[in-house]
Amino acid sequence: MNPDWTVTELADRLNCPACDASPDGPIVARRGDGLPLRACGPCGLLFVDPAPTPAALLLRYQNGYFSGASDFFSGQNYCEARDRAIDDGAVTGYREIAGNFDLAGKSVLDIGCASGALLQSLSRLGTRRMAGIDIANEPLHFGRTRYGLDLRCAELAQAGFVPGEFDLILMVDVIEHVTDLNAFLGEAARCLADTGAIYISTPDAGGFRVAGDRWWHLFLNYEHVHYLSSQSLGLLARRHGLKVVKSWSEGSPVGPKQYRFGAMPRPLRLALEPHVAIRNSLTRFRYRHAAERGQGAQLNAILRRS
């Protein structure tokens, strides 16, 4: 067995998590943690099978995930790093949200809010009400203490929100973690106001089509259980009375090769490892137009009621 998961932490898929089709699609790759990645023929979703169980995932999130113990923010404290990014408007998702939505007088829910740094960033845009939910207590405690936000430790279905409560629902780097996609998106649609919107940012499965075994989502963030493309997200949204009104892809689907001497000044680093610099330049050249074709690293989408 691979070193990341034990046999008891994994379960076979009974169906495609997006369209419920038989999960017998071809294995198209293996992640760095050894788990096979399948492609669903009917909807195009990529998903790991077997997948980590909800209990195994919860244990990971509650044991050092936000303090640098895993590859997510490895070696850094997530809450402190995001706190420093607020003044610069550099919290993940802030610029995309600020550039696409008028938040004046609006109610906003951030699902997977962690410390609430994104909500704190958005508070300067005139929001009427903000709330966040997450399933890990450590970052929530930080955010409540630091920002005084309404942050709840709960899954969406247990958070107690009423129908149509929010004008904007945020899912920034969260939907790829959710084990029951249909229940999750259906509940989000229930909480959404009739004229509201959902913003999603997630790894773009479209990038796998051009990157193959070099697709960098195969080598990090092993708590992800599936990967959406614009196609599979559109099909999933329609099942819940939603439609994708805007989508765009960003970044290269292949990550740069890391320098062994990364802490050194750049000129010295390049002199010691010129082969790394050359490889990274070629990678950027090869994939520089991938995002324009919807085959980048990160998929962004805005959903509204259909």
In short:
The chain is α/β, with parallel strands linked by helices and 306 residues long.
* Helix content, binned percent: 25-40%
Low-confidence stretches: none
Helix-and-strand structural type: alpha/beta
Largest sheet: 7 strands, mixed
How many DSSP E strands? 13
Shape: globular
Order of helices and strands: EEEEEHHHEHEHEEHEHEHEHHE
Radius of gyration: 19 Å
Number of helices: 10
3D structure, described in words:
With 306 residues, the chain is an alpha/beta fold. The chain has a domain at 256-289. Helices cover 28% and strands 22% of the residues. It contains ten helices and 13 strands. The strands form three sheets. The chain has a seven-stranded mixed beta sheet with strand order 8-7-6-9-10-13-12, with helices on both faces. Helix 6 (181-191) links the parallel strand 9 (166-172) and strand 10 (192-203). The longest helix is centred in the last third of the chain and has 14 residues, at 274-287. The chain is globular. The mean pLDDT is 93.
Topology at a glance:
Elements: E1 10-11, E2 27-30, E3 36-39, E4 46-48, E5 51-52, H1 54-61, H2 78-85, H3 94-100, E6 107-111, H4 117-122, E7 129-134, H5 137-147, E8 150-153, E9 166-172, H6 181-191, E10 192-203, H7 208-211, E11 226-227, H8 230-238, E12 242-250, H9 266-272, H10 274-287, E13 298-305
Parallel strand pairs: 6-7, 6-9, 7-8, 9-10
Antiparallel strand pairs: 1-5, 2-3, 3-4, 4-11, 10-13, 12-13
Helix pairs in contact: 9-10
Properties at a glance:
306 residues, alpha/beta, four-stranded antiparallel sheet, 28% helix
